[in-house]
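Thread: Newbie trying to understand structure tokens

Hi all, I'm a second-year student working on a class project, and my supervisor (Dr. K.) asked me to get a predicted structure for one chain before our next meeting. I've only ever worked with sequences, so writing a 3D structure as a token string is new to me. If someone could post the tokens and maybe explain what I'm looking at, I'd be very grateful. Here's the chain:
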Amino acid sequence: MWLAAALAVIGGIAPVVFGGTSSRIDSALIPFWIGAAIFAACAFLPNQSRGVTAILYFVGGLAIVYGLLSMFSLPVRLAVLGTCPAPPARCTTGLPTPMTNGENTGLGVAAAFGILSIFLGFYGLVTVYRKSSVNAPSPPARQIPPVAPRPAPEPEPVAVAVATPAEAPAADEPEPELPAPEELPELPAHESASSTD
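---
Reply by user tm_fold:
Sure, no problem. This is what the structure looks like when written as tokens:
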């Protein structure tokens, strides 16, 4: 979280450093620094609950996204409204001038640091959630003494019937025959409706 706050501060300073104080994208400095302050609060208060840390991260991320959108609104505005011709020519229409090289560079650097700050803040939030889950209290230990196992019952003797030679069937006896199958009556021939027509 500290690293995410530092990157947000650098991202807020970048438009001023590259574009100068008269830059049209230096207004992103305030939302970036608000996001950096909120990320620093998340890092400074690590013992807060996970919900408080998540809400703080969400608000800080929204501040940085607002700063990014305010910067990217300038190129969109210039593309829709149009711009004056290059500086040697006179601007008679009153339209804004095109973006300078410093503004372009400041916009790119600030966007890169802002997005990187949001990702690192999310990584910090994940570590806060993992740390609190590791430090979770252990489940309660069993207080009741274990029950002694029952002794195994004695196996009961099983009586086995053995056929004696006198009870065995004689080999000379004929096998019983099955009764002859009954003959079924014949059914009448089927007449179709087409044959009667």
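A couple of things are worth pointing out once you decode it. Residues 55 and 159 are 77 Å apart (CA to CA). The chain has five helices and no strands. Feel free to ask follow-ups in this thread.
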